[in-house]
Design a protein that fits this description.
The protein is an alpha+beta fold and 156 residues long. The protein has helices at residues 13-31, 35-39, 60-77; strands spanning 9-10, 42-50, 57-58, 80-92, 98-109, 116-130, 133-143.
Length: 156
């Protein structure tokens, strides 16, 4: 009987370091509100799922709409977000893609206030190579506290 779950293959330290650099760049782009460049790290038909969203976002246009709304909402409040990625683990798949899992803390700072953890998440991506880099085919963000981001991340 064949398994429906693809076999996972350990990746080399060089590949893991390369993936770590990918995520560092991706997180900086998002935190610097460089939405167009951040979107370029997703496949055209990429999918973004989150336990804080009512439904998955399919394709760059849907992901862009939500991301730009979040940037505007933070701008109006004077909020700064920093995405801190830790605990990165990646495994290869037979088709050459990777499954990458990490913890991501989102720290929020408001003017004249102390920084606080805005969200604590587990992020699981499927990455694939395109040219010399990686692209996100799918992302699943699981919030440690269901619905935490829902009031901020409206999809309509």
């Amino acid at each position: 009987m064949t398994s429906l779950v693809p076999e996972l293959i350990p990746v080399s330290d060089d590949v893991l370091l390369n993936v770590q650099h990918f995520y560092a760049r991706q997180m900086f782009l998002l935190d610097e509100n460089r939405v167009a460049e951040w979107l370029d790290t997703f496949a055209d038909d990429g999918v973004f799922r989150s336990t804080g969203l009512p439904e998955p976002l399919g394709g760059r246009a849907a992901i862009e709409k939500l991301t730009r709304a979040g940037v505007e909402e933070r701008r109006c409040r004077g909020a700064v977000h920093r995405h801190l990625l830790t605990g990165l683990h990646a495994d290869g798949r037979p088709d050459g893609s990777l499954v990458a899992r990490s913890y991501v803390l989102v720290v929020e700072t408001l003017p004249e206030e102390t920084s606080r953890v805005w969200a604590s998440t587990v992020c699981q991506d499927v990455l694939f190579r395109r040219g010399g880099g990686w692209l996100v085919r799918s992302r699943q963000v699981s919030l440690d506290r269901k619905g935490h981001a829902a009031p901020v991340l409206e999809t309509s």
